Amino acid sequence: MRVFHVGADRFEELPALPDALPPAGWLWIPTIRQDLEAELEQLDDALQRWTGGSLFELHVSDLLNSQLPSHYDYTSSYDLLVFRRLAAGNGDVADDDSPATPAGARRALAAIDTSPVGFALFDRVLLTVHPAACPVLGFFAERLRGQARIPDQRNAARLPQGPAELMLRMVNHIVDSYLDLRRHLTRHLAVLQNSLFEPGGHYRTWHVLLDSRNVLHVLEDTCEDQRSAIVEWIDAIDEWPAPAAPAEARERELLRVRSRDVLEHIERVLGHVRRLESSSEAAVQMYFAAQSNRTNAIMRTLTVLTAIFLPLNLVTGFFGMNFEALPLIHSPRGFWVAFGLLLALGIGASVFFWRKRYLGSQH
């Protein structure tokens, strides 16, 4: 568990939980689930001293639950937001040099990490609960530390003005991580789709495509939960007491703007996931249409061949009858006359069907 003191012009890491809140600024306490469970009693005591309230047991369970969907809740002391990530779980997705094979595409899609990040928002304290090895924590710790070192007058505008603003920045970063990921998802889905239409190929790994479609369904559900959570957060901001000072009103409006921006990013992610789902479904339908067209072409060719040989069988059957008085049956030239007739019928039928475009690749 780490503790950061964030002020208008400062960002520093404290060695431990302080006995009281600093006179200026606020505290950011990032932790992973395992550390929160181990140090929960100490954290509750500190929150009780700082804010006069502590985390409810049900909300603690939510923060420790790695399978919880995105949602928003509130109490009289704090707001709770659980937001699931959309990021690459390992190097398969982020590696542009990975083999473009159906198996590699399946691994890439399955590697998407949707672990939740929890936020407990107090007036002057922000508690964030991350999964193990979460890059969001380290990214913002280094980013804010670098912003605090900039020696100019715009430094105050770069640092978050309060816990709510930092929470929205982190949520926005989580959503934008998927916007960076979509290029890889599109490429890997294209690999799966192209493998359906390989010339002369036989697509046998249907479970790869089905797994990919299931992953996209999970992503869509995740985005729907994210959107619902942010919409509830925006509604909660509108229900807050009216600000007493112009500075507070401006900060409140900034929170609304950032919240709407996050919502717009989620809508973009949701739209992209739905387009990928539609593209995947269209590829399957096109595959079956192509297979049906191929079957029809095969049946047409077989039917034409049958139609060509049908008069030939008729002629050979005629001369195969057991009668003595058949024409040409005793003539030395009878075989060649019958052979010429068969050849003319075969060539004539073939030319007829070719002109009708029943043969060949042009239909």
Question: How would you describe this structure to a colleague?
Answer:
The protein has 363 residues and is of the alpha+beta class. It folds into two domains: 3-291, Beta Polymerase, domain 2, CATH 3.30.460.20; 320-355. The protein has helices at residues 33-38, 40-51, 57-64, 91-94, 102-110, 135-148, 155-158, 163-196, 206-238, 246-319, 334-355; strands at residues 3-6, 11-14, 26-32, 71-74, 79-84, 87-88, 112-113, 116-121, 125-130. Mean pLDDT is 80; it is low at 91-100.
Features:
about 375 residues, alpha+beta, Beta Polymerase, domain 2, seven-stranded mixed β-sheet, two-stranded antiparallel ribbon, 11 helices, about 60% helix
How are the SSEs ordered, and which strands pair?
Layout: E1 3-6, E2 11-14, E3 26-32, H1 33-38, H2 40-51, H3 57-64, E4 71-74, E5 79-84, E6 87-88, H4 91-94, H5 102-110, E7 112-113, E8 116-121, E9 125-130, H6 135-148, H7 155-158, H8 163-196, H9 206-238, H10 246-319, H11 334-355
Parallel strand pairs: 3-9
Antiparallel strand pairs: 1-2, 1-3, 4-5, 5-8, 6-7, 8-9
Helix pairs in contact: 5-8, 5-9, 8-10, 9-10, 10-11
